[in-house]
Amino acid sequence: MLDDLLVFSGGAKGVFLAFCMAIMCRREFEELHHQGGVILAPTGYYQSLRLIPPVFGGIIHVEHELNGDTVMSWLTDTMHVTGRAIYLPLVNNMDGRVLTREQAYSIAAAVVKHNRASGSNPVYVIGDDVYAGSYLAENVEPTPIGAAPGIAPWCVSVITPSKTFALPTGRVAFATTANLKLRRALGHYRTVSTR
Known about the structure:
By secondary structure, the protein is α/β, with parallel strands linked by helices. It has helices spanning 11-24, 68-77, 101-117, 161-164, 180-193; strands at 5-9, 25-28, 31-34, 37-42, 58-63, 84-89, 123-128, 155-159, 172-177. The strands form two sheets. A seven-stranded mixed sheet has the order 1-9-8-7-6-4-5, with helices on both faces. Strands 2-3 form a two-stranded antiparallel sheet. Helix 3 links the parallel strand 6 (84-89) and strand 7 (123-128). Helix 1 (11-24) crosses helix 5 and helix 2 (68-77) packs parallel to helix 3 (101-117). It is globular and about 50 Å long. The chain starts with a strand and ends with a helix. The model has no long low-confidence stretch (mean pLDDT 87).
């Protein structure tokens, strides 16, 4: 639905900033309390992302490759941490690796299993689909994490014309999520964090 789409100035960074605020902060009226958190990202993640979580007391954990097993292990190791998220690029910024259907489905299954068992401390996923269509290999089946079964209630997907369509001055991004609470938080924080 059109109402599910959020438009951000500042490109993908605007979405990442609002996303981190949504999961790493607690808001009491106009007071914002930084609670920290941790984002799991693959080697070669979008480097600007490293600057955003520390603003809210958060950190980034990096694994060479994300799959269902590495995600499940990380979820177990960080069970006590609130404000957790997984950053999943459709196309890796550093080496061009593409998120395959097998990877996306196994990661989604791990997240869904974890969140159903630990509803009070869910982990969220941000699907970075900005390089959609930029892969050259014909033998891969790219699958955005937001398209994996069951992940919709915990996922935000982002795309931007500055990367997707090679329009570097198009500093706008589009994000969508099926999570009403998260969508409202993103909508609020985009108004306070961008020009």
